[in-house]
Amino acid sequence: MIFYHGTHSRDNAMNIKYIVELTEEERAYLLELTSKGKGKARMIKRANILLMADRRQNDEEQIAELLSVGSSTIYRTKRDFVEEGLEVALEEGKRLGQPRKLDANREALLVSIACSKPPEGRCQWTLSLLTDELITLTEGEPVSRETVRRRLKDNALKPWQKKMWCISSMNADYVAQMEHVLDLYAEAPDSKRPVVNFDEAMKQLVSDVSEPSPVQSGQPAKIDYEYKRAGMANIFMFFDRHRGWRKAKVTQYKKSPDFAECMRDLVDIHYPDAEVVRVVMDNYSTHRPASLYKAFPPEEARRILRRLEFHYTPKHASWLNMVEIEIGNMNQQCLNRRISDRDYLISELAVWESKRNREKATINWMFNVDAARSKLTRAYDKLIGQN
User: Fold this and answer.
1) Cβ(340)–Cβ(229) below 8 Å
2) Which of 10, 38, 19 is nearest to 77 (CA)?
3) What is the domain range of residue 58?
4) pLDDT the model gives residue 218
5) Domain total for the chain?
6) What is the helix, strand, coil percentage profile of the chain, to 5?
7) pTM above 0.85, yes or no
8) 208 bridge partner residues
9) Which H or E element spans position 201?
10) 76 & 178 share domain
């Protein structure tokens, strides 16, 4: 837990120190943004804060003096960068207490524009385009991009995004794949043809600046307010519910060669005696037989694939992949804390998975084809109606 000094929670929060360490790509982006000077003034100011705070080149007093900003702005910018990333750090916070700058009629007009087709030659609406169009249609009355952004947010509108899963429905392909996976889950355990669920998760590595203090009699554990990002790690997860077995493999990336290595481990190390391993996974682009041919010579790729069967959940149906539940257990039981480097992450996951495997912890999966047809009657009735 975090130990706070003092009595006022807001004052305590402001005592937290965040260390900004920009990557080369982030620094280059910020330098380009500030040199052009075409963005919002507040965004450019936040970019300059990050550049000056990078690796403690300047303290808060120097930044405040040189940029003419308050300490709270510096604090929020550094906090957002460390906890949420560059994009969030550059976004403008909400200014409380100011009157609404769009009346009901102009807001309705904005919503109407955002829901219409974008201008010719443009594939989508942007904040700049929407702002310009609104000013044009309201005879030049000024309005800022930030006001437009807030009104779109209030109306849950993001016209520059396309989320395909909002368009998909439980069509015949979805139902067919779902029932196929559910039938696979319903089969009796077979050590020669095991069913293994597979997926990946990301873990942000965060390091302490000062050594934490352990729990003592009458005192809680203490960790320093100050911490910094230390990179990212990918975690591949295998899960066999019949065996009560899981394996967490930490890698730097989740590209085709990494997936291919996981599949080779699966047949050669984890299931050397199985005739075929049936792997249930989602439709991520690397989860394909082609990934093995990108990583290995053809004869090696074919040798591994002869002992694998890939079974895919429907698109946008991650709930059908049991490994998602075990990833949730991993996050809650092992990863819900600061972990500073990959070696420590690997060692901690090894201890966690070893204990879970000794206990043969598993999942009591209750959903089957009969339950699907009973609970999802509307989707099935729609298919029958189409026939």
Assistant:
1) no
2) 19
3) 9-90
4) 56
5) 3
6) 50, 15, 35
7) no
8) 227
9) strand 195-208
10) no
